[in-house]
Every structure is written in structure tokens, then in C-alpha cells.
Amino acid sequence: MPHVITQACCNDASCVFACPVNCIHPTPDEPGFATSEMLYIDPDACVDCGACVRACPVDAIVPHTKVAAEQLPFVEINRAFYPERPAGVKLPPTSKLAPILPAAEVPQRGRYPLTVAIVGSGPAAMYAADELLTQPGVLVNMFEKLPTPYGLVRAGVAPDHQRTKLATRLFDEISRRRGFQFFLNVEVGKHLRHADLLQYHHAVLYASGAMHDRRLEIDGMGLPGTGTATEVVGWYNGHPEFADLPVDLSHQRVVIVGNGNVALDVARILTSDPDRLADTDIADYALAALRDSGVQEVVIVARRGPAASAFTLPELVGLTQVAEVVLDTEDHARVRSDLAALPADGDHLTRQKLEILAKLGDASAPITRPRIRFAYGLTPERISGDGRCTAVEFTVTGSDQPRRIEAGLVLTSIGYHGTPIADLPFDDAAGIVPNDGGRVIDPATGQRVAGAYVSGWIKRGTNGFIGSNKSDSLKTIQTLAADYNAGLLAEPVGGPRSAARMVHAHQPDVIDAAGWKAINEAEIAAGAAQGRPRVKFTRVPDMLDVVTDHSDVPLLQNLLGALRRR
Ligand code: NAP
């Protein structure tokens, strides 16, 4: 029986290269890979060897015989990606394996081996380090402003998606490799500038992501009771910058504007039974707030129709497995009309999404437990309220017919947006650093910015999934390696010990791998006592206290590490 890819698919394509018969598509070299919502196994071509299962970093692949009840829709989702054909007939390309791009070789040119500073420690940063460290001798110093690494995998992925967070196993393994060093609790732009880093590295690769959200400029945003879904994501995930966010759940209804995957995550968490979250790594204060919550309905509002829903099919399937999701009569009619308008050979993902929406319950039914309602075709005009928000005023999109939805909490969820990076050019409209294949380009001169590279959301914009960053970072590293091999990168003025001294001089509270290990182990130990994966520290001073308590360990390891690398 074939294997099946399920909801947690991260798109990093490790499975594609592990598969001996090329039955997983789209492959990174095929059109559509960059925008694909997940990868799919061709059930007719799969030889059931299980190589993909071992390669998947997030345990998303299961044999057909072990598919859990809630994963059953993925059997059809995998199959539907491939064209209909007579039973037993395989597709022609199954004998051709997906081409593996050769690793970028970087023979040492000067006194020091290629030494790269990576700014950020999320998926794009870790995949870039992974690629660099395939080459012997290469040194990677990773700078992260928080005392804890892994970016949105720690602070963005929802706590009830623990399988997706398994990507940290791979990241842990990368960070333990020879040549890798963490400099946590160091903010580039505050403690250090680009020029400081460039003195001690051949190149600086910025993979700092796009932590901030796009803002909806309508009257009333800013009233108490308004905010953004991404802030709430940071809040329930214990991100120190959002730990004090005032999230008032005392009202019956929450409105979320925008219907991407972030909106689905927040709606699902706000309507979850707190007992379902109690064995996750959700921040303690958030779990307590959810236990006291009065929220009975979260309305996710889109300005366009059902066929244009921004959420992905795997996330919609996952949502409907765990939450009660409804539509009102008008929106059920919109779904039927979109389904009828879909050409027979139309996009199979849209068809599958619409078919799921068509089966949702009716919003006129009495509310028996906290539920989610999708609403369509409403353009937000203003937030109303006297002193605090009480409702959102919409018009029916394309008309001036008013609609009003009462709500005590209004969150906008209209996408993330990159923030400018000190010393680098910035394209504010696109929210990215201008670049050519990852090499930062100053649009004013058309010239490269010395030693500066980008990867991930700050390079390409806020799209894709955790694993999409693997092929993206690989391309940047190939550009960087070509520049190094062409002699375009200046030699550092000192080796690893001088670099570490420079960082300590700018930020005495820098945390290294041993410090992170102490924080990580303390969190895991606290979690084990409660049957949870970890209990997160949510305040930086608490994290620093744990590191200080283990301060003899980092000092010794720093010295040993520096001596080893000399
Ligand atoms: P998104 O997918 O880009 O969705 C943005 C939503 O905001 C769309 O519904 C969009 O509607 C709406 N919108 C934009 N401007 C608006 C305006 N002025 N007024 C009203 N609505 C407006 O953004 P996201 O949910 O933040 O996700 C960002 C990325 O992270 C996506 O690639 C997503 O898949 C990924 N992500 C994935 C997961 C997961 O796999 N579990 C979880 C979280 C995030 P229009 O379509 O009409 O513009």
C-alpha cells in the first residue's frame, strides 16, 4: 500500500530526494513547487519503501495502513494531485529522479576558511547554516536577538501543531555541527552593525524574517479591543515581546479580518477546549486566559468569495477535524455558486476546499460550544465603539450595502510584512530587501552591498512554509559561494576568538550554545513534570537567570570551542 503525506507537510522536499522512484511531487525543479500547499505521493507509483518517512523532519508521512481517522482526507488529497489514468498505469517520469543540486564547494582562499554571520535563527537561517556546513572547514556564527533560537517555529507555529515543531530536531542537529556557533541575545542593528560583523566574516546573511504584520488603515483601529492576529500568535506562544499583550477574552465574539492560515490558527486556539491545549507548550498565562474566556464565536471575515479563500487545503482539513465551523445561509449560497462556476478541469485544490465548505453546518443552529464562522464578501470600513471596540462596520464588497458584526475583540490578519534592516536598502512596498538571487543590491546604484546576502521572507516576501526555505536558502548560499570563489568577498581581520571578543565587547550578556542548552533543559524539565513538551520562559530576565546559574559551563565551552577552532 502507498504512503500518504498529511497536514504537517513542511515542503522542505527531503522526501523527494529520499524517494527511489520519484513518486513525490512537485519536486523543487518543477513549476509550482514554490507555491504548492504541500507535497503529494503518487499512490500508483509509490513502492512503499518508507525512505520518505525517515527523511521527513516533521513526521508528516504515514503508510496507508496507519493513517489515523483525522488524516483520512489526505489519502484523496494526495491522489487528486495526479491525473486520472487506468488502474496500474504509472506516469512517464517515474524513472527520472529529481535532480539534486550539487553542494556549493568553497575551497579556502586566504588565511581563514569561509566564515559567515547569519542574522536570525528561524528556518531560513538554519537551512542556510545546514547548506554551508556541508563544506569542510566552513564557520557559521548565528546571531539572534532573543535568548532562544528557531524564530517562527518557536514563536509562530501554533501550540497544537506540535508535529510541525518537530523541525527543531533537525535544527538542533545542525547547531551541534562542528563550525557552528550561536550568539543569542544579540540584536544586529542595536548591539552590532553590519560593518562590525563584516570585519570578522566574509559575508553576513540576513534571514531575519518578517516578524511584524501588515496594518489595516481604517478608522477605529487602535481602540482598546483591537489588535492583530500575529500579535496574538506571539502572545500564546510566549514570545517575550508579546507576553504583556492585553488580550481581553471576556466578550462573546471575536472578529478576525483576513482568512489566511494565521487567521485559522488564531481562531482555532481561541475556540479550543483548554484541556486540548494543556499538554502543549502554550504560554501558561495564555492557557489561564483561555480557561476564563467568554468567547463563543470567532468570525473569520474575507473581502472576497469562498473560491478566493487564502487558507490552504491541509489547514482547512485540519481545522474541520477539531473545531465546529459554520457558514450562514448567504455564504452557503456563495459556496454553491463558486462551485458551480468552477470549470470541470479547474484547480483541484479550490474544488476540494469548496466541497469541504459546502458541507459545513449552518450558523443559524444554536451555539453549543465555542465555534468558528467563515464570512465572505465583506470589506472592512471602520471599527465602532465608544472608548473600546464594540463592532466592525463592513460594506458588501463591490456595493455600498452596510453590514455590522458586533465584537469585543477585533484582530486583523492580513499578512506579515518585512521590517527594514539597519544599513541595508529596503523595498517598503514589497517588504523585502532588494536582492538578486540573495545578493543584496542597492537600487540607487544597482551595485551589490558589500558582503550582504538575504534568505527567507526578507528575501522573497511572506509566502511559503517552513521547508520552502530550504531551497530558497540553498540558492542564496550558491550565490554567496560563487562570490567567495570569485574573490569578491573581503578577508576577515581576525579569527573566531577575535570575533567572539568583539561580540562580548558590544553585548556582555551574549548567550552561547551552552546557555541555550541550559534554558532548553530547564523548559523541558518543567514541562516533563506536567506531561508537556516544555513550559516556556516568557521573560528575558528569567532566561538570563538560568544562563547565569550555568555560567561556568559556557565559559569553559567557549574556551574549548575557540581553542579547537584555532
Ligand atoms: P495570507 O495568507 O497572505 O492571508 C492574508 C489575508 O488577508 C487574505 O485573506 C487577504 O485577502 C486578506 N487581506 C489583505 N489585505 C486586506 C485588506 N486590506 N482588507 C481585508 N482583507 C485583506 O497571510 P497570513 O495568514 O498572515 O499567512 C502568511 C503566510 O504564512 C502564508 O504563506 C501562510 O500560508 C503561512 N502560514 C502557514 C501556516 C501553516 O501552514 N500552518 C500557518 C501560519 C502561516 P485577499 O486574498 O482578498 O487579499
From TrEMBL:
Main EC class the enzyme belongs to: oxidoreductase
Amino-acid biosynthesis is among the record's keywords: no
Record SUPFAM superfamilies: 4Fe-4S ferredoxins (SSF54862), Nucleotide-binding domain (SSF51971)
Catalytic activity from the UniProt record: 2 reduced [2Fe-2S]-[ferredoxin] + NADP(+) + H(+) = 2 oxidized [2Fe-2S]-[ferredoxin] + NADPH
Signal peptide coordinates: none
Record key words, sorted: FAD, Flavoprotein, Iron, Iron-sulfur, Metal-binding, NADP, Oxidoreductase
PROSITE patterns with a match to the protein in the record: 4FE4S_FER_1 (PS00198), 4FE4S_FER_2 (PS51379)
Membrane-crossing segments per the record: none
Cofactor(s) needed for function: FAD
Pfam families: Fer4, Pyr_redox_2
4Fe-4S ferredoxin-type domain residues: 1-29, 37-66
Top-level division of the source organism's lineage: Bacteria
Oxidoreductase found in the keyword field: yes
EC number: 1.18.1.2
Protein name: ferredoxin--NADP(+) reductase
